[in-house]
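Pilot study result, target chain (90 residues):
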Amino acid sequence: MLYDDVICTLKHFSSLKQRSLAEKGVRMKIIGIVLAVVGVGFAVWGYQLSGSIGSEVTQAVTGADTDRVMTYYILGAVAFVVGIYLFRKN
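Predicted structure:
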């Protein structure tokens, strides 16, 4: 009788652990999708900033994009890559 109770309890904890791992996988996929979307948003925002008058003047004088534009490009790329990694991980 006691043996059956122990086995039943162990099975219950095992099923809770599996459910918890499945929920964690779903959360990671959601976080991955959100990061990928945010990454694309940063890249688009950087692209729009590169067309601003101040950025075009800096680009004409120095021949390079402004630090702000490059920061948005880099943030966008990193967020997108991490998001895709988290989405595909499990």
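One observation from the pilot: The mean pLDDT is 82. A full batch analysis is planned for the follow-on phase.
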